[in-house]
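Reopening this one. Same input as before:
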Amino acid sequence: MSPPMCTLALVGLQLIITSTVVGFTGQRSLLRYAALPLMILSSGLQLTCLEQIQYPVGRSFLGAASVFLVILYIELALLSRWTFDAKGPTSSMGGLAPVNSEQLKLKRKTGESKLSSGTIQAILKRLLFGFNISLQSRFPGTKWPVRNIPPFSRRDLGYIPGKAEFLVRKIFKCLIYILILRLSHRFGNPDENPVLFSSDRIPFLTRLGNVSASEMRTRVLGVLAYWTIQYMVIEVLYSFLAVLAVAMRITDVDVWPPVFGSVDDAWSIRQFWG
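Same output, byte for byte:
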């Protein structure tokens, strides 16, 4: 198996583990703790695969995604303890308001959360719920959305695009960004990197008087290029997962709001990160 496919397979395994645990186990099940070492092991196994991937940006991002899935698992399965029966968190340890115990008892009494065990329909419903939760960390479209989720439209905050419009836009954005990322490798000379980014050039303020205009330009452009590439890589991965989930009817469109807000709103450090 090629290194990229190996990495993607391990990421897929992490998603399957999270989805299965959230969809099929109770809030206090020991299986939730038993699966944590598997999540960490999958992340560790990626190190050998990542070292063989040629593109540094893709390598760093896939590695970060693997670690993120471990953190997300801890939040979903061990802290907030999302369950299929509750259709939400059952513990406040993760910072979310848990489903009311009386409401959960009512769901069980009315049979809302009970499905005939062993039926294909029951298994699919639980898996889809698990995947739905595992593919998001901001919980849009639920009673527990994080603050400051960017809207689909700044003019109409309640606007949600149709499925066809959403898929076309995401696919188009994904293709454009992939093309730009591919072309970006043609710029610059890798042979100059050992000189431009050598260890003796790491100190900046202490040798400010010796910094040339060329080095200053390289530093500024390097920072801008890094942030721009990271922005596009995140958008590509997010758009790919969104298209896959919506096209296969795993989730609805409202689960995939824009991953980034408007640049106009980033007028302070808090606004930039918030």
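So the earlier flakiness isn't reproducible anymore. For the record, The radius of gyration is 22 Å.
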